[in-house]
Structure formats: C-alpha cells, structure tokens
Amino acid sequence: MNWDTCVKTYLEMILNGCPKEWRPTVCQYCGTSVGFHRHGYYNRMLYTLEEILEILIFRFKCKHKACNRTFGLLPSFVERYQSAAVDVQEQVISELDNGVPLRVVAEQLDLPTQPYSEKSLWRWKKKWDQQLKVLEPIFWQTVLSRVPHLTLPRGSQSPRSSRGWLFLAWREVRSHFTDSLEVGCLQWLIHLARLQAVPFPGQDLSYFFRADGGAGIFHSWSGWHTGRDSGKNPQWYILPLLVHQADSINS
Ligand SMILES: [Zn+2]
Fold first, then answer.
1. Cα of 123 to ligand 1 centre, how many Å?
2. Average pLDDT for residues 20-24, to the nearest whole number?
3. What's the pLDDT tens digit per position in 157-184?
C-alpha cells in the first residue's frame, strides 16, 4: 500500500480483501523474510476530520518458527490504539503551535464524535513531542537529500517551534514526495518511522521511549542503542535491512 493512501482510497482498495501487493516482505518483530500467513483482520473505528469510518486492518503471522508473531498492516493515516486519524492530531498540534489555547482547540475541534477532552489533546501533543525528537533528524535528512536547496522564510514569518518548521517545510517539499496535495506531515513521518523501524510509544515495540526519558533506536536484533547512554556523541543506528528500503522511500 502506498504510504500516502487516504482513508477513502484505502476503503475502495480493500473491497475485495487485502490486495496481494500489500503483503509484508519483512517481519516487523524479527526482521526475517521467511514469509507470512494471512491471519484474518480486525475492525477499527476511525475518527477523521469529516466523519466516523469503520476500517479493516489485515493481520499477518510470521512464519519464522522462533518468532511466530502476529501483526496488523496499519495504513500510515492511523496509529495503533488511536481512534483519531493522524490528520486530526496534526490539526490539533498545529493550532497549539500557533498559540491557540488548549481549551479553545478542544472546543473548536468539530468532530462527528464525542468531544475529545483537553487532557486527550494534551497527551497527543506530548506524544508527538517525544516522537519528533527522534524523527526530526530523519525528516531533515530525507528532505534535504531530495531538495538540497530548500529555502524557508525568515524573520516575522518564522514558525515558533521546531514542529512548526517541520510543517512549513513539508508544505514546501510535499510535491517532491507525493502527488497528493492533502497528505499531512505526520502521516509522512509515520511512514518514515515504520520504514526505519522506529517504534512509537503505545505500539508493541514501545520500550523505545523508556520510563527514564531515554530514547533509543534498534541497534541490532539483539538489543537497543540509546542516545542518552552513548555520551556526547549519540549515534543513531538504523537497521541495515531497512536502510535499504529507506533508499526507495518514494518509490
Ligand atoms: Zn517474525
């Protein structure tokens, strides 16, 4: 499935079940390519900016005997355990970045569902603050390798936060990565994270962000490398296997 698939296109594509070309090639747990069994699907309610939709998530089971784990094939517009689509979260975070008070953002978030509490919205912001610490370098590296002469406004037009810079840069470079004029920055970041095996909090590999605030990334299949532990010159290791995939991020 293309990373920039929107919810509507996704629903059309799965009318006859999981398309063959969506089958995973690498296990997200053990990293092997032994193969996968289909393992049914589950239903998810998804709150988008416009409506509530029910989507199916297809599941696969790794054939590697030592692994044998099951995972769902999540599209980039949805995160595990999150009922709100990524676009909804992006809108909230952008407004908070623009200085709109949390109370006002919560009141104005006009979703076709029960209103989200201010607490929920704040949790989204904190979660993305954490995730972006890790994803920002990957974002800039990928953007600048494709658009090396990117120019961004200075002075009074400058965004107020590093997140703001990301969103601004994304609007400038989006056409280099997708034909979709709508697809949001966070959706792309989720795609990048999944390509590079950067686990998100709340997902099965949630020990990426540890209780003590340290953050790490898969170093090898035997363990984690943490930025904090590595002293003044943290190295961020990306799985070699997945670096290969990252080379073809836009293919
Ligand atoms: Zn596996």
1. 31
2. 89
3. 788 788 888 999 999 999 999 999 889 9
Q: Is the dihedral of CA 31, 33, 37, 40 positive or negative?
A: positive
How far is the C-alpha of 64 from the C-alpha of 45, rounded, in Å? 31
pLDDT in tens, 23-53: 888 887 887 888 999 999 999 999 998 889 9
Q: How far is the CA of 54 from the centre of ligand 1 (A)?
A: 28
Q: How far is the CA of 61 from the centre of ligand 1 (A)?
A: 8
Going from the Cα of 38 to the center of ligand 1, the distance in angstroms, rounded, reads 13
Rounded to whole angstroms, how far apart are CA atoms 237 and 216?
Answer: 9
Q: 32 CA distance to ligand 1 centroid (A)?
A: 6
Ligand 1 centre to CA of 134 (Å) is 25
**pTM for the whole thing?**
0.75
Q: What element of type H or E holds 133? A: helix 118-146
Burial of 113-137, coded b for 16+ CB within 10 Å and e otherwise, reads: eeebeeeebeebbebbebbbebbee
Tell me if 196 sits within 8 A of 239, measured CB to CB: yes
